[in-house]
Amino acid sequence: MSAPDLKAALALVAEVEQSLPMPLSGSLRCEAGELLALVGPSGAGKTSWMRVLAGLMRPQQGRVAVGGEVWCDTAQGIFLPPQRRHVGLVFQNYALMPHLDALGNVALSLLHLPHADRLKQARHWLDHVGLSAEQQARRPATLSGGQQQRVAVARALAREPRLLLLDEPFSAVDQMNRQGLYRLLADLRRELAIPIVLVTHDLNEARMLADRLVVMDGGRVLQEGTPAQIHTAPRNARVADLVGIQNRFQGVWLGPADSPGQGRLRWTCGDADDTAAPVVLTVRDKGKLPAGHAVTWVIPNDGIVLVDPGAGRAGDFDTEVIEARHLGEITLATVRVHSVPGAHLVLTWAGAQRQALTPGARWCVRLDPARVHVMPLRTTPLRTRNGAVQTAS
Question: Helix or strand or coil: residue 371?
Answer without folding.
Answer: helix
